[in-house]
Write a structure and sequence with these properties.
Blueprint: H1 2-10, H2 22-34, H3 42-67, H4 77-87, H5 94-110, H6 115-118, H7 123-148
Helix pairs in contact: 1-3, 2-4, 2-5, 3-4, 3-7, 4-5, 4-7, 5-7
């Protein structure tokens, strides 16, 4: 039962099984899952994001161990957490959501320093931490874009 729960969480409710770009599918699921949280108080958003991170570390670790791979492609809970960080503490408008989605996907692929180095952390910590850092970079990038092109 725990393995099934870990897999369900790690795969972003199954989006990690997408045959095309599972990371992008997981990011889209993350954005959709954030919608009800967007109107919650900031403290609730932060707490929920931290909870997703902690539970994600557990689920990613369990799934990586089960599959025998360091960072299995089907694990996308890291994209969900990173996507949440990408939109955190900003007004949740269509412009922010779209900009954050594309900025996060770009930062997740490029993995600027120290994101790539964070992958070296053990098990689920490494799986999750690099995407959270990519989310931080995406959040900052969206804020810079919003200075030039109003997104909210």
């Amino acid at each position: 039962m725990r393995d099934r729960l870990a897999t369900l969480i790690a795969t972003g409710l199954g989006s990690g099984y997408s045959p095309w770009a599972p990371g992008t599918a997981g990011s889209a699921v993350g954005l959709l899952l954030y919608v009800p949280l967007a109107r919650a108080p900031v403290a609730a958003q932060l707490a929920a994001t931290l909870l997703v991170f902690v539970v994600g570390v557990w689920a990613a670790t369990a799934t990586a161990r089960r599959t025998g791979r360091k960072d299995p492609g089907l694990v996308v809970v890291d994209e969900i957490a990173g996507m949440w960080v990408a939109v955190l503490l900003m007004p949740f408008t269509a412009g922010v959501a779209i900009a954050a989605f594309f900025a996060f996907r770009a930062m997740d692929v490029v993995k600027p320093y120290p994101a790539r180095d964070l992958e070296r952390l053990p098990e689920g910590w490494g799986i999750m931490a690099d995407d959270v850092m990519a989310g931080v970079y995406a959040n900052l990038l969206v804020r810079v874009v919003a200075l030039v092109w109003p997104l909210w």
